[in-house]
Amino acid sequence: MSRRLHILLIVSLFVLTFIASSCSSKKAMVKTSLREFTAGRLIEEVENNKFDYGRFQAKINVKIETNDKNLNVKGQLRMKKDSIIWTSFSLPLGVEMVRVKLEPDSVFFLNRNDKTYLCESIESFDDISPMITTIQMLQSVLVGNDIRLRESDDYKVEIDNGQYNLMISKSLKKSIKHNDENWKVMMKDIWIDPQLFKITKYYIKEYNDSKRKIELQYSDFQLVGDKYCPTKISIYVHGDKYLKAKISYSNISVDDNIGFNFSIPQKYERLYK
Is the pLDDT assigned to residue 77 strictly greater than 90? Predict the structure, then answer.
C-alpha cells in the first residue's frame, strides 16, 4: 500500500467516527433482575453519567480494515471539546509519521515521510462516514456519549441479555413510513449498561437506505475523574465503502494545558482527496 493510502485510511477513521482510560478497576455486568425504567428516565440516567471534559489526551492503538486494506497504527489522540480533534501516529522508534487535525469544518494532515499535506472540508468525507457529520458527533462517538439522545423523542425500553435496550417505537416507525421516500431519517437502537448507565452498543442506519449503517461497541469501562469511559471501541461502517476499526486507549489525562500544535512546512506538496 502506498503511503498516501495509509494516510487516507487514518483520516477516514477519524472523520467517521469513534475513548478513554484511567487508574480504576472495571465493573462486571449486572446479572440480577433489572430495575424498570421509562425511556425518559433511562435517557436521564445516561445523560447524568456521560463523560465530560474540556481537553482530553490518550495514547491510542488503532486497527483498520476495509474491503481490501489493513492497517495497524499507534499514536496519540487529543481533543478540545466541540472544537478540535488532533492525532499523531509514529513509527516504532518514536519518529512521527502522520499528524492529523480536525476542526468543525476542515480536515488537515501531514505526511512527514513524503513531505505532503492535505486540507479538505469535512463534508468531503461523507462517503466514508455518512451519518457522523460534525466534530461534536465524532467526539461523542470517541468517548461513548450521545449528543442527540434527548432529541430522539419516541423510544421504548426492553431488556436484552442483561442490558437495557432503547428501541425506536412502532408509532414512530409508522409515522416515518408515511413520509416521502426520499426523506432520510437516522434510526438507532442503543444498549445500556445497567450499573454504569453507559452506552455499550449502537446500531444506526438510515431508514430508507439499508446499505448505510454503523455499529458501535464500547467495552472495558474505567473511571476517569468521577465518570466512566470506554477504553475499547469497535466500529463497523457500511456505506459506499466498508470500514472496520478497533480502538483502544491508555494513559488518559484531562488537562487544560494540552496543546494542539499543527503547522505546514512551506516545502510540503499539497494532496487532494
Answer: yes
Nearest Cα to Cα of residue 103 among 196, 14, 175 = 14
Is-contact 245 62, C-beta < 8 A?
yes
**Whole-Å CA distances, 3 to 114, 116, 122, 220, 242:** 8, 10, 21, 33, 20
Nearest in space to 82 (alpha carbons), one of 51, 57, 103, 108: 103
**Looking at residue 31, what DSSP letter applies?**
-
* CB-CB contact of 254 with 55 (8 Å): yes
Rounded to whole angstroms, the Cα distance separating 39 from 156 reads 6
H/E run at residue 16: helix 3-16
Q: If we measure between CA atoms, which residue out of 118, 197, 130, 117 comes closest to residue 164? A: 197
Residue 193 contacts by C-beta under 8 Å, 6 or more apart in sequence? 29, 30, 163, 199, 200, 221
Q: Above 80 in pLDDT, residue 11?
A: no
Which is it for the CA torsion 251, 256, 258, 264, positive or negative? positive
CA distance 267 to 138: 32
Sign of CA dihedral 195, 199, 202, 206: positive
Residue 98 contacts residue 7 (beta carbons within 8 Å):
yes
Q: What is the distance, to the nearest Å, from the Cα of residue 185 to the centroid of all Cα atoms in its chain?
A: 20
Q: For residues 189 and 205, what is the distance between their CA atoms, to the nearest angstrom? A: 9
pLDDT band of residue 130 (cuts 50, 70, 90) is low
Helix (H) or strand (E) holding 13: helix 3-16
